[in-house]
Amino acid sequence: MPTLNLVEQKESAVKRELEESLGIVRRNNYALQRDYDGFLTEFTKGLYHHFSEGNRPLIAGLREAVAEEAVSIADFCCGSGKGTLRIAEAFPQAEIYGFDVMPPSIAKAKKSTKGNPRVKFQEADVYNFENGNSFSVVTFHEACGTLADKILQYGTKHEVPVIAGKFCCYDTIPDKTPSSQNTVQNFYLKVMRKLHGFIRDKVAKNYVSPRDNVDRDLLSEFTKGDLGVTEAELQIIAAAAVDAKIGSLIIDLNRIMKLIERKYDVGYDEANHIVVARRKITL
Predict the structure, then answer these.
(1) Position with higher pLDDT, 32 vs 233
(2) 2 occurs within a structural domain
(3) What is the rounded CA–CA span in Å between residue 281 and residue 278?
(4) Is the C or the N end of the chain the one with fewer CB within 10 Å?
(5) pTM for the complete prediction?
(6) Is residue 173 part of a domain?
(7) Does a structural domain hold residue 1?
(8) CA atoms within 13 Å, Cβ hemisphere of 59
(9) What is the pLDDT of residues 225-279, one digit of tens each?
(10) pLDDT confidence of residue 68
């Protein structure tokens, strides 16, 4: 199992780092540039870990947070279900639900269960999610853009005991997909733009676009109230994240702050963009 460095997130430290990082971005007028020399190495390494490890680092984090007793686990953005089945293997007493907006992916996932009654896959749109089950764990792996925010919102609203996920695709948060000054990165963005358009227009007929008057729940109270960040500014920061890691850090910290405000203890692995949050026990 891959190693994971989940660091406990203290509210005061998160607030301080958010304020300092935001100050840097604002002073540079959101025009920060990344180390382009290392982009290909970083991108290749990311692809390698994606295909070789899948969601195993996230499962390692879940093992630290979830007791061995039977639980009900909801895995959002499950795709073809490979990661969901790994979760089922890691928690043999749990009932597992996999949700995704793409019908072909869900059809493929259902075929992969091999009759396992503990694993259930269902077509569902995160932006318009309704389900009668009460989950002990909500998890996601590489939920694009504001999907992660909606999953966090669902989990905290329903006071789910454990919420865990891997953040990615910050460039899909802005209303208009940004461009990069780096040729390779820009090619990737264009491919992703076409993929999202295909999903929206051809595959998922019932998909609710996050741009169509949907509450995306983007900001923590601290980020919005104390730091004066608006959704429009956060979108600019997300666009800057295409070329600067500090942009993605601000978005991660803002999400961590939302969890803290909603009474969760949070562990965060910055290198893997993985968060594992457990609801505080009140006596």
Answers:
(1) 233
(2) no
(3) 9
(4) C
(5) 0.89
(6) yes
(7) no
(8) 16
(9) 999 999 999 999 988 887 788 999 999 999 999 999 999 999 999 988 999 999 9
(10) 65
The residue among 43, 36, 159, 147 whose CA lies nearest residue 100 is: 147
How far apart CA 218 and CA 221 sit, in angstroms, is 10
Q: Is 17 helix (H, G, I), strand (E, B) or coil?
A: helix
Give bridge partners of residue 165 from the DSSP assignment.
140, 275
Residue 20 DSSP one-character state: H
Q: Per-residue pLDDT tens for 115-162?
A: 788 999 999 989 888 888 889 999 999 888 899 999 999 999 999 999
Measure CA of the first residue to CA of the last residue in the chain; give whole Å. Answer: 35
Q: How confident is the model at residue 1 (pLDDT cuts 50, 70, 90)?
A: very low
Residue 205 tokens read as 């007929």
Q: What is the DSSP-derived secondary structure letter of residue 66?
A: S
Q: Tell me what percent of the chain is helix, strand and coil, each rounded to the nearest 5.
A: 50, 15, 35
Rounded Cα–Cα distance for residues 54 and 141 (Å) = 9
Tokens representing 28 are: 């540079």
- How far, in whole angstroms, is CA 69 from its chain's centroid? 26
The count of structural domains within the chain is 1
Q: Residue-wise over 138-163: b if at least 16 C-beta within 10 A, else e?
A: bbbbbbbbbbbbbbbbbbbeeebbbb
Please tell me the distance from the alpha carbon of residue 46 to that of residue 256, in angstroms, as a whole number: 22
The amino acid sitting at 75 is: D
Residue 181's domain is classified under what CATH number?
3.40.50.150
* Sign of the four-CA dihedral 204, 199, 137, 263: negative
Range of the domain at 273: 7-279
pLDDT digits (tens, 9 = 90+) for 86-114: 999 999 999 999 999 888 889 999 998 87
Does residue 86 belong to any structural domain of this protein? yes
In 3D, which of 151, 169, 138, 137 has the Cα closest to residue 50? 169
Q: Which residue has the tokens 């639900």?
A: 97
